[in-house]
Amino acid sequence: MNRQQGNHRKPKSSGQGKNKNQHKKDSRNNPHEKKSQNKPKDPSDGIRLNKYISNSGICSRREADLYIKVGSVSVNGKIINEMGYKVKLTDEIKFDGRRINPEPKAYVVLNKPKGFATTTSEHKGNTVMDLVANATKFSIQPIGRLGRNATGLLLFTNDDDFMQKFTQKGVSRLFHVELDKNLKSEDLQKIQEGLKIDKKTIEVEDVSYVQNSPKKEIGLKIKHIGNSVIRNIFDHLGYNVVKVDCVTIGPLTKKDLPRGRWRHLTEQEMNTISML
Q: What domains can you pick out in the chain, each with its CATH number?
């Protein structure tokens, strides 16, 4: 009887163990389990506005929340009062009407060669941004313009206040200009006195012939930050500009800075420019 029962006794089903193993296997193959908990954050999600303000050095995050609440902060021209609002580094953030930046300030000077456009666009062929790509990881921009075939000193920064010193107040820049023919002395005098072009008077700080050179080579000191004004001056007087080279910007010179190379401004240079 016992033997008979033993012959008919079924072994314990291994299905439960099999299901357990199968569950483990399924867990390994299921991309939505556990892995999703460790999913990295998408940088495109942005950062909280209070952190952006804090990183810019204005105040702490807690204080930033108070400023946001009272309407002191705008994002892309719109006042933001929402707590936890997220922004991107490409957004324009203003605190009390002044643009702020969460990145450390960077100041770079380049000795620009020919053949590079002064633009941040990626669709203009070779640009000055290609030349300073390794200067800093921060989003610097050129101050003013030098034409594609112009050469010489060009500044870059991510400091809006520093940039406004050049665009609003102006900082002297000395250009070495070569014309297609000798500049008449009377035209030199006209430039010195100030030319009226398109109902606007263009004033220069100084203009003179380059010493020991033909009279078609001119030294021109001016505070305008675009080199188009230089071409406008000589076009107005009937000359074609052959070459433009920016020799100095304020206290900055091309000394020890080969064509196509860049360097960071020194603290002493920054202090000198801030006093201009």
A: 46-99 (3.10.290.10), 103-170+255-276 (3.30.70.580), 172-249 (3.30.70.1560)
